[in-house]
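Quick log. Single chain, no ligands specified.
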Amino acid sequence: MTFQRPQRAAMAGWTICLLLACATSAGAADGVRPLPGTAPLLWEGDIASRLVDAADRFLLDELEKSVTRRAAFWNRDLTSAERYNASIEPSRRRLAHILGIRDERVPFESPEVVSNLGQPPLVGQGEGFEVYAVRWPAVGDIHGEGLLLVPQRDTPLANVIAIPDADQTPEQIAGLAEGVAPESQYARRLAESGCRVLVPMLINRRLSQFEIEGRPSAPLSNREFLYRSAFELGRHLIGYELQKVLAGVDWFTRGGTGDCPDFREAKAGLSPLAQGAAQGGLSQFSRSENGAVPFRRPVAVAGWGEGGMLALYAAALDTRIDAALVSGCFDVRRKVIWRQPIDRNVFGLLEQFGDAELAAMVAPRALVVEACKMPEVEIPPGGAGAPATLVTPQLADVEAEVACARKTVEGLKPARWIELVAGEGGRGPFGTAAALETLLGSLVPGAKLAELGPPPERFGTEFDPEPRHARQMHEIDRHNQWLLLESPYVRQEFFSKLDTSSLEKFEETIEPYREHFATEVIGRFDYRLAEPNVRSRLAYDEPKWTGYEVVMDVFDGVFAYGILLLPKEGGPIRNRPVVVCQHGLEGRPQDVVAGDHRAYHDFAAKLAERGFVTFAPQNLYIFQDRFRSLQRKANPIKKTLFSVIVPQHRQIVNWLSTLEEVDPERIAFYGLSYGGKTAMRVPPLVGGYCLSICSADFNEWVWKNASTRSKYSYTNKREYEIFEFDLGGTFNYAEMAALICPRPFMVERGHFDGVASDEAVAYEFAKVRHLYQAQLGLGDRCRIEFFVGPHTIHGQGTFDFLHEHLDWPR
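-> predicted structure:
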């Protein structure tokens, strides 16, 4: 079994209902019997569902609050364009980092022409321009590929990178293929107007079945498939496509200035948008000795849909771009980003960058925002990928975001650096003459859009875009897999400041890594925990233990819920060790208490029979798309599911520590499957846990999330929320275990558990053993048990481990 999903027994559903019904009946007859010292729990219905709803409301509210919090990240100097660019340079570096733009681009002299015996180098010709099929290097072995439209004039008016939507081909916006109305063929229209136009292709959104070791996936978009590995490795499909665009900018700007008579006008004579382009660029203008202003051929980016998004990012990042046309994507991003295709998910984007902030990074260079009909996209639930929709924003939202961008840089000259073009109430066609003429006027004063000429002529045989798309898919996947092979060395370098020469040095030097894990990987909400206001009710009364349902507040509508089991035997029920017993994916606390679920085998109850106090929390990973959408709402504000789960566990540990039945120094964590995933992420950040046991989850986690070769991989499975940004460069499971160290740590592994192979588990655990035993001399605190069995609690070596390290007699 590949999924980390304990399958619920057929009888589990009605068993839970029966238990709840009995508890409700008892409460009706005898009154709710709370745990002493707590208030009665009177809630009815499914508390797990209420828990997920509360987290959802909280995260939506946090998305709204992100707008006002962004100001803390900016210190803009508006006194001049040069000072402004210098003042926001840290933000540009941050944006590049979260977009995964980390690899050096490959320098090249010019794009190479793509041709074969059936396809001549010249693939088409239009009114005043010729079309070539080209490719050019970007990063590693990844190339940009598409079309180059060359005007038939001595000097191009400008250089433009025209970026189609993901579901368009370069040929469509160049007029060489059907699918786009002639009036919206913006690459062609810019070429007809005298611009040299480079048109890269993008990975499309088509749903495919990705086969790994003979096992095809459920439908998954091409973009999401590549996004998954890249995201885990600190890269991004958006970043790769931006690298292709920026490689084009490299080429356009390498040749120096083109001192054509049309471009010799002084800045004072330029239009306001052109003045912005002049003042905003790094070296687009240079004053000669006689005061003339030679003008290098200006560079612009223009795109619709996905291409518009890339154009906005590119112009925000690179001041060599003089102007940008952003069509069909500008929006109030916080309202829509978690609904859009998940390949648009950028970890931490909205913490600092909404569309207004991105637009302000373009200032005072020219930015044209075209409010128009967006690509209409729907990815339904039920496949392997995240369900998604793309819808056209309300014009009022676009106008509000443009107004916010203007206000952000109010006072920077020229004031008219951004123009909004909106036809038909913001729902008209894209790439309109009004938008293109505004763009051209921002680049060259007085430039006019040429009249639409006759359709371009296509040369050669009928063109099939599929082989080109397949090449691009292969190149990106191959680069991701190379990054995966390199990732152990990247993590080794990341951890190079850890000092293991003594336990004291280790504990001192591990703290910055724990802080990095908390803030940059998991994500931390800086709220104080609320008063717990614990409510409870009797749920079980068994011969050897008593069980209570418990609810406690965490913060701002977020609460924790679980089942507390108190032993009845073994002497006074005071100062006992506690084991927090965590269920897996789609599980409930009741699953680890009763019913002999085949994955859990009542391990919380069995430990209570041995005299341990146990607590079984309800975690957020339940109800499929409902909980997975939480991850999608958390990621844009640099948070994750565990940003909520960690404070829940802090509150649980704090409360348990107040009980007279509990020894606060002996609270352990033991989780299976997704609970084992929790065992790797929560104890590092909750110091109250004195040990951690990871069952049916521990493995070479980065490999499992990024490999497109292994049958164990998540890259073609349904768990679209599982991917965590840049674990490949920071924390695999061995590094997470180092954050638990020197506290005891154990792994429980069934030989036939489909989570991973024995070899992968042993490989990753060997690094943990080396740290504990060889480097720090803590051999008795680190252990692994292999047993002949599936994805399940074995409850033998782990129980011994608990007795030993919690100092409780067997």
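Residues 1-29, 256-271, 274-295 have pLDDT under 50 and may be disordered.
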